[in-house]
Design brief:
- Chain B: Its main location: membrane.
- Chain B: It is a multi-pass membrane protein.
- The complex is a heterodimer of chains A (268) and B (350).
- Chain A has 268 residues and is an alpha/beta fold.
- Chain A has helices spanning 49-57, 78-84, 100-109, 119-133, 148-161, 178-195, 206-212, 230-233, 236-243; strands at residues 10-19, 22-33, 37-42, 63-68, 71-72, 85-88, 166-169, 198-202, 215-220, 223-228, 245-251, 257-264.
- Chain A has a single domain (10-264), classed as 3-Layer(aba) Sandwich (Rossmann fold).
- Chain A is 34% helix and 28% strand.
- Chain A is globular, with a radius of gyration of 19 Å.
- The relative contact order of chain B is 0.16.
- Chain B has helices at 5-39, 47-55, 62-96, 109-122, 132-157, 162-186, 189-199, 208-227, 229-236, 239-244, 249-271, 277-289, 293-317, 326-344.
- Chain B has 350 residues and is mostly helical.
- Classes of the chains: A alpha/beta (268), B mainly alpha (350).
Chain lengths: 268, 350
Amino acid sequence: MTHTRPDEGLIVRNLSVRYGRRPVLADVQAGPFPHGAVCAVLGPNGSGKSTLLRAMGGLLRATGTLTLDGVDLTPMPLALRARHCLYLPQALPEPVRLSVLDAMLAARHATGRQSSASTAEDIDAAMACLHDVGIAHLATRSLHELSGGQRQLAGLAQALGRKPRALLLDEPLSALDPYYQQTVMALLRRETAQRNLVTIIVLHDLNIALNQCDLACLLHNGRILAYGRPADVLTPEHLRTVYHIDARVDEGANGQRFISTSGVICGE
Amino acid sequence: MPNHHPTIAQTYRTAMHHRSLVLGGLVGVLVLSVLVDCAVGPAALSPTTLLRAMFAPAGVDEQTSLIVWQIRLPYALMAACVGAALGLAGAEMQTILANPLASPFTLGLSAAGAFGASLAIVLGWHINPVPDMWLTAGSAFVCSALSVWILDTLVRLRQGGTGTVILCGVALVFSFQALVALMQFVANEDALQNLVFWTLGSLTRATWSTLGLLGGALACIFPFSLRAAWPLTTLRMGEDRAASLGVDVPRLRRASLLRISLLCALAVAFVGVIGFIGLVAPHIARRLVGEDHRFYLPASMLSGAFILSLAALVARVLVPGVVVPTGIVTALVGIPFFLVIVLRRGEGTP
């Protein structure tokens, strides 16, 4: 293992967000989220998961700092910030009359054309990305002809095509069927390792977080209750506190863990 | 596989080539319709006479030259320019408001411009060195810019979806129409004559100076629209997605609204209210070249120019000897089209 600097990865310090006068996140400290690992952000509805990610992505007005490998991203204009740390919204790309390749090129040029690259190079780079994501065969199809899962993959390819060093995904699995959920998770794990990305995803599926993520971060009332290996974070006690559910964590024959819930806790 | 890339890149290039051809074709039919527009009329001109009058004025008699240069050409070119301005404004509007029913006419910009102009006409404003015509145009511009700003503010305050935009627009249309009616009520005979002619939308008052101003504005604004083509394309995939890719959406929207209000206001200021071009042209463009804004914006502009050019022709030949106000023709043709768009919206995206 190589020597790691103490400020390596993505680190959130003193992050606060308020909607009007209502504080949603107060003084959140999170991370370091290391390179090459997929980290799940968990928590019940309204716990501030999406807000945290949007604020980290620069889409919300927030106070505090976000550093990536020691570089403070907060004072950067959005266009520059998005080159380092890219946020992907929960909504799928709209089904418009735009081919997947057009969408890739538009994402590439959205903040000004990279002067050096020719159109042929742009197309090659876009195709390489679509190939990584596994939808190279859909390149000339229009977004309005694709299924939700395929559009989600196209959105991911757009993001990867921008070559960010950190990727923040807001519930990338929520609109997908189990096949595409597994496809997207496998893809994220592979690309995170290959491109040495910092990958943070908001999840609702606890079992996916437990088995397919390297790290987990549990949000409770706008604060981080626990952060670490998923097995250490997703304990029955934590689930009881955060989700108000009775839950058990079991280990299956193949080494997989699974959480089974047996009802809600009343009277809290 | 890397060995798939050449074929796909090839397909993509063919598609781009095809779109360029479509744009070229649009330019072709536009030129043709402008020429026909010049040739047809009470004094019908043969194609050779027309071309000679245009390119070798010495070879034709004075009267023909006068008809072509002072009457027919300004009229025909004004139709094309106004159509182009409305087509471009409509295309940008549908993108930034994310609404297929958005257009200068349906969302009240035209009505606001009409109100602004009616203020200047009816109240008989004069500022000494400024010609009255420019004052009318300026007043129309201020009101239509104001209506765009009101619309944008309302939509953002309510975080509204498709429905909110249209409802706010309809409210604006009715408010400004009522205000125009009020101005008509208080107007004297002369001003009323002037105003009625103007609210119906007519190209017959086109002159080389108004044409020059509108054409110049279009030529200045269009490059800025094209420069925003990539960010506007990403905006079509969702506002959040565009923002997440680093596009400064509020700034993009403000710049676009400024362009839209300039284009609409100038169009309304010189030829009055001409409906549905800004609504229909973007839909035709989308069908023809898709939503890559590098092609969609020019295609919508050219379609708008072509349709209004045709409408202007129909307006002159519909009743022999009389030029029907063009606004009436575009509204009559536009309403069925509007209904088709509304009824089709259920099935996928328009």
